[in-house]
Backbone:
């Protein structure tokens, strides 16, 4: 179920919404090594949008997703930084499934740009 929540657009768009008042308006996924996904979020008032373009590097069902992503701030302004590398692992534990997401940015400046964009707030809200 956790794997499906991270890989099936119909489920993903129900929970990965970010802060209150946002919706995931685009969720396109080609779940295979070399495949891509594109996600976009829109604020309910239509005044702001942002998204990600991603290429999958490693797909191990029920265990691991590894991808390179580029953050697109849309009309929100600010700096996006360069390509980041993200690894999402799922591990069975006694209480269910533990999911760990690790993002590696190309530089400290890129990491700061990501954090200052509000991305971590949206991740925690989701």
Residues:
């Amino acid at each position: 179920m956790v794997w499906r929540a991270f890989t099936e657009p119909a489920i993903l768009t129900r929970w990965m919404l970010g802060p209150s008042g946002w919706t995931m308006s685009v969720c396109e996924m080609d779940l295979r090594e070399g495949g891509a996904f594109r996600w976009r979020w829109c604020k309910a008032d239509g005044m702001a949008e942002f998204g990600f373009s991603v290429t999958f590097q490693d797909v191990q069902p029920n265990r691991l997703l590894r991808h390179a992503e580029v953050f697109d701030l849309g009309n929100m302004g600010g700096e996006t930084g360069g390509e980041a590398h993200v690894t999402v692992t799922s591990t069975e534990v006694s209480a269910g499934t533990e999911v760990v997401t690790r993002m590696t940015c190309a530089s400290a400046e890129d990491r700061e740009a990501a954090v200052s964009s509000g991305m971590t707030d949206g991740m925690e809200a989701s």
The beta strands are 22-29, 36-43, 49-60, 64-72, 84-93, 96-105.
